[in-house]
Amino acid sequence: MKPSGHAVLQVSSAPAVPEVVRTPCRFRNAIGKYRLRRSSACVACGKCAEVCPYGVHEKKIHKMATPKHYLCVGFSCNKCVEACPENALSLDENPVTKVIGDRRWTPDLLISTWYMAETGLVPPGDIEYKIGDSGGGFDRLEFNFLKEPSRDLDMDRFSTKLRLNRLGDGRHDIEIGLPVYGGGMSYGSISLCTMVARARAWQAWNSFTCTGEGGFPEALYPYDDHVITQVATGLFGVREETIQRVRIVEFKYAQGAKPGLGGHLLGDKVTPEVAKMREAVPGSSLFSPFPFHSVYSVEDHKKHIDWIKEMNPKALVSVKVSTPTDVDMVAVGSYYAGAHIIHLDGSYGGTGAAPEIAKKNIAMPIEYAIVKVHNFLKEEGVRDKITVIASGGVRTAYDVAKAIALGANGVVVGTSEMVALDCIRCKNCESGRGCTRGIATTDPELSELMNVDWAAQRLINLFAAWRLQFIEILDRLGMTDIRELVGRTDCLRHLDYEAAKAVA
Amino acid sequence: MCPGQIITKTINPEYDAMGDEYWTPDIISRQWYQAETGSIPVSGAGYPGPFSGPGFDDMWTDMSEIVRPTRDGIHGREYISTMVSLGRKRQSLVFDEKGRVVVDPLREVEIPIPMIFGTLPLGSLSLDVYLAMAGAAAELETLIEIPVEVWDKAFEAHAGYIVPVLPVEQIKTHDYLIDHAPAVEILDAEGSDEILRGLRADYPDAVLMVKTALGGRCPQRVETLSEIGVDVIHVYADRNGNVKDQDKTWFVKDAVRKVHNHLVDRGIRDRVTLIASGGIAMAEHVAKAIICGADAVAVDIPLLLALECRMCLRCTKGLSCPVEIETVHPRWGKTRIMNFIAAWRNQILEVLGAMGLREVRRLRGEVGRAMFFEDLEAQTFGKLFGKRLAESSQRVSE
Predict the structure, then answer these.
(1) DSSP 8-state code for residue B125
(2) B298 domain-assigned
(3) For a 10 Å CB count at each end of chain B, is N or C smaller?
């Protein structure tokens, strides 16, 4: 057991940027946007390998290796096809892209995220890595950049750090290396391997992962200082000791994917280990109640925050809520109740399991809620006293930057992490043996499809690529610190509005 | 994992070809799932669809967070009522000189779900199909509208739940139905007011329903029908929820909202029950139609989908049904329909619980528990970026 309470930490110096190590897909056939076909006319002359700048082709002793299709950038390059003396190569779009992805996570976004997780770099070619195809919100917002991207940026000139305690109340003064941390995913919704890998990656980025509502597995103990433990309506796995382990405690009132409903963990995923952690019965579905049955007013809410603060005198308290029409009032209420962080989870957020009617219909998308809350906190004169964190449909580095420009201080991500671990977004996470990639599963056999080292490095790489994009965005907006971007809606335009048309 | 990379998954072209732009393959296949299992569709990962869309997709329902009452409706942990009453309400009581109430309550039909089964706009229909649907309606204790011309003695077992539907000019020849059916639905037509007044006078206790088209004149027409004393007014759009009105096309929810608001403005909303139909394809549509002002909805095409209809529309051209719906076994069909209704009801409970409502009757017209795309855009991006481009607005409303 770890003794309760920590010393107040000093704000760390410039965050170390973790090392990027190339970490390819763990499956034999990584999925790419394009597919090369090599006919029997190939004489293995190796010309294609010579001209390809992306490492798609490899010449072996007597033959060419199977092309690494997923590295191919397509028709914008086409060098190998043109250089082949035997006309043995042809290029087309990979038909698999018609089956994977959806309007929010398009095939391009999946593929680009996989690329970033492998390389730590922005994908070359025409693979879209900034927006999806939802037709609204982030996907219709663009930055009003002042200049073209610069070459050879001095990265050290830029800061992507975010301080989380704006109350100055003597509690932990926490500064995270990126304006991003990991969202709550419980032991049960994801594998232990996934949990530990997330913790390790966020530790490397000097940021946080979150336990979700499923207890605090011992395997996370080495990462205590980078773990947010969640107190949600089911109180699964919540103990005094878990609250005292950490630097941030999160009260989860609601989740964007199923606002107004409690957490869902279907019976197939409730293994004996998960059940033990949650003090429940193996195989029995666990539906958390809604709401906290001890919170029916702001006063009750304050009572709970006080309870956490009393139990862990140094911890910051985050309040995670969804986005109802009065989300601005909820945010102000949370501030007056003593919260350090108000975490808004928009209606298009991720989940391990949710009724589809809830995912689609309940509460407002995060893009609206950020603006509403930011403005109301400003009007109330308390905007500088609370950290606003947004989540729920934040998929890319550009989404992060847009959320900040709309008024958030930082964001929480989840699905992007899963995609970095090779999730194909088949949406079967609710099922015990549904996750064919071994990420959102508690099945012992499927869990073995991944190991912690590989997974942690993929996450580190993804956020390294995101950091590059944050810096490029800042540079193009004439800024050097991500904090300058907060609430700068003047840096944005919406393509469905006349102002954007005028700019165009 | 295939070393030769010779296996490729593709979308079944037959799946893609199902339905139309409104009755999408996704809606159809989800309906099949619910009819088979009776379960709410639950899945992992976030919502995969567009930001917003036309019709019912340009609104979101609200939820309660901390500072409002909430209900924990899931799995019946807290009771949420989905019962609605169909009929007129008295606007006032009358007392005698001794202070005794001298008027009886008007007759109402109570149903445990805010859904009746509407007349079917298409389908390869047979007696067995109707028996499956009527059997389900009876079991669920709701009502089913059946055109009088398809009446069969076999329906008698479920007669207490069958609402005969007939043109106004036929009511005189079928007036015996009024005494035997829980309600009678009359198709509205020009010049029907006198007949309806006569019926009201002759059958003061009967539940009279009138089915009238939504559109620009509908609010006034509903007011008139209410004055005549019609108990239930069934307002309808086409099967895709569209209401064509001169040069304009509205969507059912917007047209219902107009009717509801008109009745509220006139102070007569509680005099009548409004049932809406057309384009009700998913459980969320029931809740949204009620938020827009309906007391209940009439479900039609989803009944056929429950029987494995693919919305190929061959039946509308007189061609054979590829799944031979007409041959369904009534018991099998009844179970499938009850399953999907159970799944829909549970989903309605989910959204009611999230909104903190303890009964569906309180949802009627509660636009305060909903958020509309147009409003949110105006309040958020409109303030930041000025006027929304006309073509963008059109794209959403289409």
Answers:
(1) -
(2) yes
(3) N
CATH no. for residue A280?
3.20.20.70
At A90, list the tokens.
Answer: 């042809």
pLDDT, residue B104, reads 86
C-beta atoms of B66 and A295 within 8 A: yes
* Mean pLDDT for chain A overall: 93
> Is B84 near chain A, with CB under 8 Å?
no
Residue B385 at interface with chain A, using a CB cutoff of 8 Å: yes
Does A67 lie in the same domain as A189? Answer: no
pTM of the model: 0.94
With CA atoms as reference, the chain A residue closest to B58 would be A361
Interchain proximity A362–B371, CB inside 8 Å: no
Query: By the CB < 8 Å criterion, does B390 face chain A?
Result: no
Identify the closest residue of chain A to B347 by CA–CA distance: A357
A397 in any annotated domain? yes
For residue B290, give the CATH number of its domain: 3.20.20.70
What are phi and psi for residue B327, nearest 5 degrees? -100, 10
Query: Any residues with CB less than 8 A from the CB of A91 and at least 6 apart, and which?
Result: A34, A35, A36, A37, A72, A74, A75, A78, A81
Domain containing B183 equals 74-92+105-365
Q: Do B354 and A325 touch (CB under 8 A)?
A: no
The reply to whether B282 falls in a domain is yes
* Portion 290-349 of B in contact with A at CB < 8 A: 347
Is residue B88 assigned to a domain? yes
Asked if B39 is an interface residue toward chain A (Cβ–Cβ < 8 A), one would say no
Q: What is the largest CA-CA distance in chain B?
A: 95
On the 0-12 / 13-18 / 19+ scale of CB atoms within 10 A, B236 is buried
* Single residue among A93, A127, A143 that ends a domain in this structure: A93
Mean pLDDT (10-residue bins), chain B, 398 residues = 77 92 96 97 94 96 74 77 94 91 90 98 96 98 96 93 95 86 95 94 94 96 97 97 90 97 96 97 98 98 98 95 96 98 96 91 95 96 92 56
Residues A205 and A324 in one domain: yes
Residues in chain B: 398
Residue of B nearest to A361 (CA): B60
Facing residue for B44 by CB, picked from A300, A329, A429: A429
Total count of domains within chain A: 2
User: Can you say how many angstroms the Cα of residue B124 is from the centroid of all Cα atoms in its chain?
Assistant: 21
- Domain of A84 in residue numbering reads as 34-93
Q: A300-338 burial, b if ≥16 CB within 10 A, otherwise e?
A: ebbebbeebbeebebbbbbbbbbbbbbbbbbbbbbbebb
pLDDT of residue A14: 40
- pLDDT of A7 above 60: no
Does B64 reside within a domain?
A: no
Q: Output the pLDDT for position A166.
A: 97
| Total structural domains within chain B | 1
